[in-house]
Amino acid sequence: MHLKSMYALAFAVCLMLVGQLTAAEPAWTSITVKEMHCAGCAQKVASRLYTVKGVKEVRVNVEKKTLFVAGQEQATLSPKAMWEAVLKAENEPLRLAGPSGTFTKKPTF
Question: Structure pTM?
Answer without folding.
Answer: 0.78
